[in-house]
Amino acid sequence: MSTIELQPVKGTRDFYPEDLRARTWLFAQWREVARQFGYEEYDVCVLEHVDLYIRKAGDEITSQLYEFKDKGDRHVALRPEMTPSLARLVLAKGAAMALPLRWFSLPQCFRYEQAQKGRKREHYQWNMDIIGLPGVAGEAELMAAQVAFLRRTGLNLEPGTPDIVWKVSNRQVIQFFLEGLGITGETFAAVCVVIDKRDKIGNEATVIELGKLGVGIEAADKIIDLLNTTGLEQAAAKVPADNPGLIALKELLALAEAAGFAHLIKIDLSVIRGLSYYTGTVWEVFDATGAMPRAIAGGGRYDKLMETFGGQPTPMVGFGFGDVVILEILSERGLLPTFSRGIDDVVFPMGPPEFAVATRVATFLRTQGRAVTVDYSGKRFKAVIERAEKDGAKRLLILGSNEVRDGVCVVRTLGGTERKEEKVPLKDLGVG
Amino acid sequence: MSTIELQPVKGTRDFYPEDLRARTWLFAQWREVARQFGYEEYDVCVLEHVDLYIRKAGDEITSQLYEFKDKGDRHVALRPEMTPSLARLVLAKGAAMALPLRWFSLPQCFRYEQAQKGRKREHYQWNMDIIGLPGVAGEAELMAAQVAFLRRTGLNLEPGTPDIVWKVSNRQVIQFFLEGLGITGETFAAVCVVIDKRDKIGNEATVIELGKLGVGIEAADKIIDLLNTTGLEQAAAKVPADNPGLIALKELLALAEAAGFAHLIKIDLSVIRGLSYYTGTVWEVFDATGAMPRAIAGGGRYDKLMETFGGQPTPMVGFGFGDVVILEILSERGLLPTFSRGIDDVVFPMGPPEFAVATRVATFLRTQGRAVTVDYSGKRFKAVIERAEKDGAKRLLILGSNEVRDGVCVVRTLGGTERKEEKVPLKDLGVG
User: Which of A67, A94, B148, B338 has its CA 20 to 30 A from that of A413?
Assistant: First the structure.
């Protein structure tokens, strides 16, 4: 019986080597796409001051902070999202930075909520943001990066029945409509946070929540009706032709057409996003089959965040792309690559007298760039071969006392059906 | 004036892109060396149960825990080191895992201590460990990996006046000596923790601290005298020839000789390591010039840790290699590579009507594996070129209304002294 708790802290994950390989692969894809799009990676500490996340609109994310007071009585949190840290970095350098910036990051993010079955309290997230670029060219570029990544994974994004759909809306469309109902400013942001939850809590509860914000039943019904709007034409029918949100949606579709992914976009006004700071385009990426109800990724424009932090008005747009949902989807569809340990050679000294020469051989092979491990176990030959094959090694280099005396090494090729061995002079393996 | 705190949480670091590049490079070196040695990467969450770090011996690391109670009243900490988490992982799987394991990790580790000038509260650490291999072949292999990494950085490790030294001791030597003074068991571990601090606190304070553990002044003086022992011969004079620690040091030197780094090892009994769980070989890696007093890395054998956690006796050995000291050393010696943003092409649409075709061109170039950014700024030509050159781009692809009308793109080579431009048909750039 162990005297320590063997499980990780509730809601957090252990990554054994066989688990970590998928994450490492995923991160490499994300970094490669970010590189192709010319984005620079940044990072901050997982600990941040809680002030960064204090908002009046009641965002769910900030009501579930993994927060605490440190020994110096600082009120800190394990970050729930990266965007406020990004804004802090940009604000701290101020005019010293030439905009626009194209930055990305792969932060681990935390939330603390009452346990729900299978819900974790941490996940990793691919963040890409453009700072200082107004206009939907930014949105189109970010979506193109998401498309490029998902194409790399082997998912089908061709016209016809693609695997993935981008549901896109614009808060300025919603905003115009709500202004007509007398809902503005802070109340607008709070209403957005509430109606974002409609899918989860249902229409009835949404109406009640809206009532708490002072929205009458009639207005609430109209809002819910608006959320059922899909397609550019229906959206266009709800607002004047010069509505900036509507214009942005049209421009976005044109750029997506040029970039070859317009067929993946569905205008859908039910997409709101739960973060109160979004001001323009908002989007969520879904499994098109509906088999996976949770969003794969989400993004949006947040042109006012910098001002609420006391900075100059700065157009910003970005997305977050979690590790959990996409890995589930890829795993279910058999699209995860087969990962191996990547060992090239196992050197096997048959006893301690051969350890030194085995070390020499291994050192030499590593300078050739090969991945080499030495089996010091002194186990029987069969067990050594089994372990080497299990580890995916391509060759076993055998060093017994006879071999060393004769100045050779027996090199056996592993993995094949027939036994292939050759004697290689030790001087060709860096010895002597 | 900003309304948020612009600084990161006290003692933590921001990594702007220009800062992160060095860390990314460092991590890539560490991962490559780990790969060459056949180690598998693992990871756990930065949050762990505090129980993992509770030790009776008064380890400094556990007296400086960045700890707190979470909302569920769990006593948790931001990990101060990775080894206990590693042991937890291995213990949780038990006999299901075929030993030995060769694992590595690149965790961020935290400590909370009263502020000292320039001391950070977090750092990253390269950890490599072998689980299930008794005998110093493990130590030799791990040191060889450290050597391989430091060689890659361009530091001089050749015989003569190498830049780096490995100071090596073995706790079984110290243990034999202390047993002679009646110091055993838990007290031995606590004494190790105290005498590890001698360099920092001086001989006098060490004697006082030892007194608190019940060690008399005469014995304390003898211990301090022992710590001044350097070289294998002097160490051999302190213990019987069959002392297992002494034998291990001799074997280690023989294997280091075979691996080509024996000239870098100095036997030095003042090396103790501040972690109470070490049981055998202990080592610290230093700047040989002494210009950098802090250790670059440290490691050791901890064959009893698994038992104190309630598991089966399991030989374990490993090292931790921090990011801060090595990057300082490499930076001071001019050994850090020059990092660039790595952008290949900047596509410049001269106005919004060209955004769509620019998107097409960028999309095409990215499918060729090139790193491409689009400059949507609409700025003057000079500013666009300056920004592209500042970003390290090799080519600027110019798309004005005339070019698009004529079905061409002006491609200018950047960075040279003379202006080199050519007109490339748009159909060769994926358009039309």
Answer: B148
Q: Are A76 and A49 in contact (CB under 8 A)?
A: yes
Q: What is the pLDDT along chain A (432 residues), one digit of tens a residue?
A: 678 999 999 999 999 999 999 999 999 999 999 999 999 999 999 999 999 998 888 888 888 999 999 988 999 999 999 999 999 999 999 888 999 999 999 999 999 987 676 679 999 999 999 999 999 999 999 999 999 999 999 999 999 999 999 999 999 999 999 999 999 988 999 999 999 999 889 999 999 999 999 999 999 999 999 999 999 999 999 999 999 999 999 999 999 999 999 999 999 999 999 888 999 999 999 999 988 889 999 999 999 999 999 999 999 999 999 999 999 999 999 999 998 888 999 999 999 999 999 999 999 999 999 999 999 999 999 999 999 999 999 999 999 999 999 999 999 999 877 889 999 999 999 997
SS3 A13: coil
Let me know if residue B9 belongs to a domain: no
Beta carbons of A102 and A38 less than 8 angstroms apart: yes
CATH number, domain with residue B401: 3.40.50.800
Chain A segment 339-378 residues within 8 A of B by beta carbon are 341-343, 346, 352, 355-357, 359-360, 363, 366, 369-374, 376-377
What Cα–Cα distance (Å) separates residue A98 from each residue in A94, A110, A202, B280? 9, 31, 45, 54
- ipTM above 0.90? yes
* Structural domain total, chain B: 2
The domain boundary, picked from B311, B332, B353, lies at B332
> Is B253 touching A (CB cutoff 8 A)?
no
Could you tell me if A310 and A349 lie in one domain? no
Q: Do A371 and A233 have their domain in common?
A: no
Q: Are residues A89 and A186 in the same domain?
A: yes
Domain membership of residue B31 as a residue range: 17-332
Query: Is B382 at the interface with chain A, CB within 8 A?
Result: no
Q: Report pTM.
A: 0.96
Query: What span, in angstroms and rounded, lies between the C-alpha atoms of A210 and B382?
Result: 52
CB contact under 8 A, A363 and B92: no
Alpha-carbon distance B94 to B49, whole Å? Answer: 20
Q: Cβ of B372 and A66 within 8 Å?
A: no
Cα separation, A165 vs A381, in Å, equals 54
Tell me if A12 is assigned to some domain: no
**Closest-CA distance of chain B to residue A70, Å:** 7
Does residue A84 have a cis peptide bond before it, meaning omega lies within 30 degrees of 0?
no
Closest-approach residue (CA) in chain B for A70: B68
Query: Residue A6 domain-assigned?
Result: no
Distance between CA B210 and CA B196 in Å, rounded?
A: 11
CB pairs under 8 A between A and B: 258
